[in-house]
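Self-study notes.
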Amino acid sequence: MSSDRRDFIKKVSLLSSVAITLPSIGMEVHAAPRFNMSGYRAPKLDKVRVAFVGLGNRGTGAVDRYTYIEGVEIVALCDRHEDRVTKHQNFVTEKGFTKPQGFSGDNGWQTMLKEVEIDLLYICTPWDLHTVMAIDGMKSGAHVACEVPIALSVKDCWEVVKVSESTKKHCMMLENCCYDFFEMLTLKMSREGLFGDIIHAEGAYIHDLLDLNFSKTYYDDFWRLKENIRFNGNLYPTHGIGPVAQCMNINRGDVMTSLVAMQTNDFHMADTARELAAKDATFQQFVGKKFRGNMNTTLIRTEKGKTIMIQHDVTSPRPYSRIHLLSGTKGFAEKYPTQGISLKSHKNGHSFLPEEKVEELREKYTPELVKFIGEQAKKVGGHGGMDFMMDWRLIDCLRNGLPLDQDVYDAAAWSAIVPLSVESVGKNCKTVTFPDFTKGAWRSNTPVDLTLNGGGNTKIRPKVEKDGKQLDV
């Protein structure tokens, strides 16, 4: 190899290593998919061997929920901290199951993938580990379920897509808000044409996490606070975009084509860092840092000329909201701040339908999945039941060889809002092009099946309360 060629390769490698700070890298035109994962039916798995990596806040809840799903064997647990692994091994055995293998340390997950046969790798680690773990998990022969987002750069989004297609392994981002009861209701309504063509939609993650971001114990080594320094954009778009994207058939009949983002200055985090550092030297490391602004507003346009607004604010003292707003040619729905539905056919003008009418619609349009498992999911728990409904649905699809509700193209597109918003904000609110991760397949991809056709046979183990009372689950 010539010296010029070696120098070129070194430069390419250097650029790849800074893809996060240069979000437009990876925007080049990609070839047609090696294999279309939309609607893909993987071979059935009678028993799903699951391994969890990351046993913090989200991982702990996930391990608990999976002990209630029949057809699941928890075969391995991994975390940086050995005591967490031991704690969760004991939890699983106390439930009456075989002790999972345990792995710890910064590289324990890599050893786990080499030594344990895994059907599903469930990732609950800090964001910057998601991509490498998802890719290595698929290459090791496992399907992947990963907490949001799947990647933090456009280049990594493309890489996850490529590996999923080449290995024919599912890579589902665990966007639990797609399984919220109202979001699922409006998804069914939109599929049935109740709102007509959805012209505009809105979603958000507005959640005051200021105290938790500066907590010494909630996020290991302040990892989430550090992300608010590293990225000046919409850090957490998927709770807002996921449900409305499904209602608008994004990647399955339409596709996002451009994005523009605007952001306020920071009015809270830098001040909080200074105030805490004056009393505790631990926080001195954050003094003088440039934090992302409070509110980021991102606007997206689709190929069919529809628009989506996604907001992100985790520092302002305001009520929690995901907005979840759908505005169509025949109707309107929103969840926050006031949950309501308005339909042109009911001639209710500018007002929401009365509750008795909404209840009639709820009875008619609640998806089969919710009717089948919704009340049971509430009893098991996880954000009011939507976490368990998501987990149960994933396992039921894997056991029956059914397509997943969220595929790798959804994971990539919804996650790409992070780096694209950073790019737009950094270029004074310039409009940027949105990659088509389906490579044109969106034109023929079909919407997600909301029925239980071919599945619905995965049973739920009973839940026993501390007082010995067994819930009817």
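Second protein, same conventions, sequence then structure:
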Amino acid sequence: MPTPTPNQERTAMLSGDYNSAEYSAEYKLLYLQGLVADKAYEAITEFLEKQSEYEIANLLESFPTQNRLLIWAQVPEHIKGEVLAELDVDTRQPLMENISSQEISLFTQDLDAQDISEILDTVTESVRTSVMATLDEETRVQVNKLDTYADWEVGSYMDPDIIQIRDDIYLADVQEWLRENDDLLDDESQELLVVDQSQQLLGLLSLVDLIKHKQNTLVSELIDTAITINDRLDIQDAAAIFRSEDIRFAPVINSHGELVGQLNGEDIMEIIQDDVDSTMKNLAGVSQDEELFAPILTSAKSRSVWLGINLCTALLAAAVIGQFEEVLAQVVALAILMPVVASMGGIAGSQTLTVVIRGMAMGQIGGSNRVWLLNKELWVGAINGIIWAIIMAFIAQLWFHDIKISAVIGFAIAINMTAANVSGISIPLMLKRMNIDPALSASVILTTVTDIVGFMSFLGLASVLIL
């Protein structure tokens, strides 16, 4: 089906003919905004019934808190549990404040252990106990297992409900079992996990082998090697393994080699997206917990810390400038050109910093390649510094007709851009060695370095060459 044009989307928006898969998220948001403004409750319910839990969650996160409550009241009951599991914690929390344990039990009765654990993370202990008592024994055990892991461990993200078979049975038995339980496999399943009598993971049995080999063949004869993930491994390291090995899922084992769950590609994609969001916020000096529609005071508070730190660094740079008050007072042109030096160094350093932090997140920087990268950035900074120094010196000469001022701005830009590139890689490496998240504070430190080096080189050279 061809993608609808904006005009078609507007027509559908007005008519209410909104197929879940056809129209863009933005136009769905605009349509729902119109319904909320009109308080058209029945129309909101009708619209939401056509959306998936992922789309409803995204729409809820696109409204301020007050409107979220209105929309949430119109979400169909049969999908509220799935929607809650897809929401960010900060969005989910207010929605659940007035939900009773009985309602939560109804929402979670058809959910898997992963989703239930996610939802119960935002309720009180008494509500949690009440809801847990309504779960069947198998699900309750799985939820409790997930809750034993720290937030950063693979175990807290794995699916404990896995399809496993023994190695000492025949293919005919496996096929018969799958036919009797036709809901076990989904459209993406291609392998079965094989264990021995003591739950030790032995490997994988592909569905292709299950079909093409003779039915009296033992499973143990067809086992393929599996790439496994330890349940206590950092989830970021697990994501790096998924990327490097190009796998869709991985069996999760404990320290004894026992199969305890399965880590799926979709969970890894969510982790990667969360990591990207976190890195973007940290680079901008915004709290990881701040969401787009957070209350005004919450957002102001979360940002004020880094604004304060930035003010301190700016005052430090100002103090450096203050040391050259005499030269600035005599040569007005220096005050005009001074921001250019800091700006060129800042952008050069930010380019390097962005590439390096991404490389760290992808697990691509470590060992001997750090020295190679440091040398590379030194030369990149020097080459770009010389090129733009010449260009800026030429512009300054046309502007002020003073060869000394042109020389000062040119040399200062070359020095600052070289230092900025080196700082762009050395600062995050240093912070990582100190167990500090580079994305959280590297940009502030880099700005301070480029400002101080830029002003020192520019005004210092001016003191020597002009006064």
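Instructor comment on the second fold: The longest strand covers residues 201-206.
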